[in-house]
Amino acid sequence: MSIFIIAEIGINHNGDLDIAKKLIDVAVLAGADAVKFQKRTIDLVYTAAELDKPRESPWGTTNRQQKNGLEFGKAEYDQIDAYCKAKNIAWSASSWDVESQKFLRQYDLKFNKVASAMLTRTDLLTLVAEEGRYTYISTGMSSWEEIDAAVALFRAKNCPFELMHTVSTYPMNDEDANLLMIPALRERYGVKVGYSGHEVGLAVSYGAAALGATSLERHITLSRAMYGSDQAASVEPSGFLQLCGAVRKIPAALGTGERNLSEAEIAVRKKLRGC
């Protein structure tokens, strides 16, 4: 089974459509199945007091200016939609509020994505599940009871979904990955389980693939030195190409677990053993 690879652009475009298109090009070149963004209605996600806090950024000196500078609107998403269609790659976005999810309905998206931070937002999850579109649900910073509730909601709405094991630290230390949660989630819920990673390197993602992850999501960036809170937990183009190439080989390499000799091995056996 091929692993569904999502290149998480998120807000690493820094509000620049040209950067977004370059990141889409990276995903296409690497052979990813989809790219994903993040959508927020700033005044709904953050309080006025939070937005008024001082914050130095390329867009100004307040949190509001920074958040608005990172946010794409309809004009940008119309171009993203057209560009992804031209490049033959799927795209989606994780919504951080109900209005953002409604906004995304104007596009023919292949899948939805629930971010770990939104897993307990029943109003948003209900809206997503009612669409009936295949949904990836990240499980970072969540208890078993919280995951149970999300799974029950999606099942009650008959919405197909896949869980993604996630550790919500940015960047994540390799020793915190707890990859055995992948089979644990699969056993508890009887569903496909992927991996959404925030580590710096590639080894942990290879381990997730070897444990049977059915999807893989990694943040990508043109350069980890760029401005942005997610850049340090992202993979640069050369690393993402390497990651996708290696991950595509792992499911086939795992084999069946049955002790069968291939024709090539039988030929070597005859040569070395004479039988």
Our count of helices gives 12
**Number of DSSP strand runs:** 10
Residue share in helix: 40-55%
Based on CA atoms alone, the radius of gyration comes out at 20 Å
CATH superfamily: Aldolase class I
Separation, N- and C-terminal Cα atoms: 35 Å
Number of self-contained structural domains:
1
What's the average pLDDT? 97
CATH class: Alpha Beta
CATH topology: TIM Barrel
Q: Sketch the topology as an H/E string, one letter per element.
A: EHEHHEEHHEHEHEHEHEHEHH
**Which blocks of ≥5 consecutive residues have pLDDT under 50?**
none
Beta-strand residue percentage: 15-25%
The secondary-structure class comes to: alpha/beta
Biggest β-sheet, characterized? 8 strands, parallel
Q: Biggest sheet, strands in spatial order?
A: 5-2-1-10-9-8-7-6
Q: Specify the CATH architecture.
A: Alpha-Beta Barrel
Shape: globular
